[in-house]
């Protein structure tokens, strides 16, 4: 009804003139909005029961109403329509055959908000060689020929390990991470446990956002803490590496709602994937979704977040302050690489504790 009134007002305003010309055509975006509203109304109307509800137990031949709800397919993210070329490439496949080897294309769509991806009637590709069991040591060398790496420049895990040591594939480097204290920006795991113990808090379940190959989860596993890692495959098989280490990867972008129930996690860590390049609206959404999944007394660890110093003071610190968390640790230091010096950037490492009650 609102859409119809808007269209009527548009026509009236265009025809009240001294010499009425031919009315202009209705813009496509108004027609699209009207069609969307009408389709939504029709859909909602179709969900209404045709007969008054009763308290009778359904017979064995009728379908329970709650089961009918589960038959609704999850909707495609609305932003899929904004990238028709990518979507067309992704949907160009042979039904009931092997899916194309197009993992980078799926990443491109997910990062643009087209997530969950449209369902495809093709079969995912898998590797024929699989490990006989999960590793007892999450810092063992990643086994070769256990992942599809054809679309990467490196075709083996050892190649990734030798390319750049900070990518997370060199286990000789990874096994010492999160253990040593080199500057105020560091928070060794043992110090983290000491802080939680002094606060009479416990860390059992954690979520690592943007956790790369899952090294934080691996270190915490050695402390009998379960950590789920969200990670994307930015030019490297991060999800495969996490899984091969006997850990749990979630293929989730930063802008998606965390697939975790409210108030069940003891710790949420945000790695270096969370930084000043994230749009402010998405950053705020992320912070408040972290608050949603954290239990009272739980910890939020912002690890080596970098931004311009002025933005940290005027934008990000007030945004973080909206959570109303207790500052257990707040350390700021200059980002001394070439990019950091050029843009006047700083690192922030913060450990914040959620209040028990609001």
From TrEMBL:
From its record, what is one biological process in GO terms? methylation
Principal location class: membrane
Query: Where found, per UniProt?
Result: Endomembrane system; Membrane
- Leader peptide range in chain numbering: none
Q: Name one GO cellular component term.
A: endomembrane system
Query: Which is one Pfam family of this protein?
Result: Methyltransf_29
Q: Which domain of life is it from?
A: Eukaryota
- Describe its membrane topology: Single-pass membrane protein; Single-pass type II membrane protein
Keywords attached to this entry: Glycoprotein, Methyltransferase, Signal-anchor, Transferase, Transmembrane
Query: What Gene Ontology molecular-function terms does this entry list?
Result: methyltransferase activity
- Family per similarity comment: Belongs to the methyltransferase superfamily.
| Name this polypeptide is given | S-adenosyl-L-methionine-dependent methyltransferase superfamily protein
Organism whose genome encodes this protein: Abeliophyllum distichum
What is this organism's lineage? Eukaryota, Viridiplantae, Streptophyta, Embryophyta, Tracheophyta
């Amino acid at each position: 009804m609102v859409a119809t009134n808007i269209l009527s007002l548009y026509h009236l305003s265009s025809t009240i003139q001294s010499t009425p010309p031919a009315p202009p055509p209705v813009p496509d975006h108004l027609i699209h909005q009207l069609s969307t509203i009408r389709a939504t109304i029709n859909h909602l109307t179709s969900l209404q029961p045709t007969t008054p509800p009763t308290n009778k137990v359904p017979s064995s031949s009728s379908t329970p109403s709650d089961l009918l709800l589960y038959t609704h397919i999850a909707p495609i993210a609305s932003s899929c329509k904004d990238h028709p070329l990518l979507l067309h490439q992704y949907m160009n496949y042979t039904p009931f055959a092997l899916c194309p080897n197009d993992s980078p294309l799926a990443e491109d769509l997910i990062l643009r908000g087209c997530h969950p991806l449209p369902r495809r009637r093709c079969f995912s590709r898998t590797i024929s060689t699989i490990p006989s069991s999960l590793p007892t040591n999450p810092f063992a060398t990643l086994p070769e020929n256990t992942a599809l790496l054809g679309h990467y420049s490196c075709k083996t895990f050892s190649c990734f390990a030798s390319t750049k040591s900070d990518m997370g594939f060199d286990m000789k480097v990874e096994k010492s991470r999160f253990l040593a204290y080199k500057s105020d920006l560091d928070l060794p795991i043992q110090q983290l446990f000491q802080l939680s113990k002094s606060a009479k808090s416990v860390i059992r379940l954690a979520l690592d956002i943007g956790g790369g190959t899952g090294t934080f989860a691996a270190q915490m596993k050695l402390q009998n803490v379960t950590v789920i890692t969200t990670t994307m495959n930015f030019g490297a098989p991060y999800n495969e590496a996490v899984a091969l280490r006997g850990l749990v990867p979630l293929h989730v972008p930063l802008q998606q709602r965390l697939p975790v129930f409210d108030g069940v996690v003891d710790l949420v860590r945000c790695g270096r994937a969370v930084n000043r390049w994230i749009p402010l609206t998405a950053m705020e959404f992320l912070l408040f979704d972290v608050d949603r999944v954290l239990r009272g007394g739980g910890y939020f660890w912002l690890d080596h977040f970098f931004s311009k110093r002025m933005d940290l003071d005027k934008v990000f610190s007030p945004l973080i302050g909206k959570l109303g968390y207790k500052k257990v640790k707040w350390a700021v230091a200059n980002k001394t690489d070439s990019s950091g010096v050029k843009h006047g950037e700083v690192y922030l490492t913060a450990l914040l504790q959620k209040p028990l009650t609001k």
